[in-house]
């Protein structure tokens, strides 16, 4: 139960951060991605802040024997770059550039009650379903 409450609090905090930084606003995101037009660099500060917090906090977190609500850390073990990784990254970037949403902000934007984020999340779920059916 503690693990679920911690996950809920982390998710709500993440969603709040996305809303405050306006990452749930596709126009803001698209302007950030448009480096030759109406470029808006403010989301770079959001990304930089996230990287800084991660760099500092992971040094302390990973020195612990285990996470607070889990028996062990579950860290990635693969380091190879394959066609599925490259294809997924390209698809992610294309989708982000077309829609102005990536998964976190897209789900957080559902709280606004608009049809665009709902359509995005449906597409996200269909894409996840399709990926699971592709041969490895």
What do these coordinates show?
The structure is a single chain. The chain has 136 residues and is mainly alpha-helical. The protein has one domain. The protein is 65% helix and 0% strand. The chain contains 6 helices and no strands. Helix 2 (26-33) packs across helix 4 (83-99). The longest helix is centred in the middle third of the chain and has 20 residues, at 42-61. The chain is globular.
What's the helix-strand series? HHHHHH
Largest sheet: none
What's the count of strands? 0
Count of alpha/pi helices: 6
Shape: globular
Q: Averaged pLDDT, please?
A: 90
Q: Could you name the ranges where pLDDT drops below 50 across 5 or more consecutive residues?
A: none
Protein name: YeeE/YedE family protein
InterPro entries: DUF6691
Keywords: Membrane, Transmembrane, Transmembrane helix
Transmembrane segments: 43-62, 83-101, 107-131
Question: What's the short story on this structure?
Answer:
By secondary structure, the chain is mainly α. Helices cover 65% and strands 0% of the residues.
Topology record:
Blueprint: H1 2-20, H2 26-33, H3 42-61, H4 83-99, H5 103-108, H6 115-133
Helix pairs in contact: 2-4
Pick out its properties.
136 residues, globular, single chain
């Amino acid at each position: 139960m503690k693990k679920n409450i911690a996950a809920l609090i982390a998710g709500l905090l993440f969603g709040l951060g996305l809303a405050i930084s306006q990452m749930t606003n596709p126009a803001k995101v698209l302007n950030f991605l448009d480096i030759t037009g109406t470029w808006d660099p403010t989301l770079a500060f959001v990304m930089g802040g996230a990287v800084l917090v991660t760099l500092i906090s992971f040094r302390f977190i990973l020195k612990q024997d285990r996470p607070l609500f889990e028996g062990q850390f579950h860290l990635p073990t693969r380091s190879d770059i394959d066609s599925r990784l490259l294809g997924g990254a390209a698809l992610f970037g294309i989708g982000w550039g077309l829609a102005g949403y990536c998964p976190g902000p897209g789900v957080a934007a559902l709280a606004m009650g608009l049809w665009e984020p709902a359509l995005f999340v449906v597409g996200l779920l269909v894409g996840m379903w399709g990926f699971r059916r592709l041969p490895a």
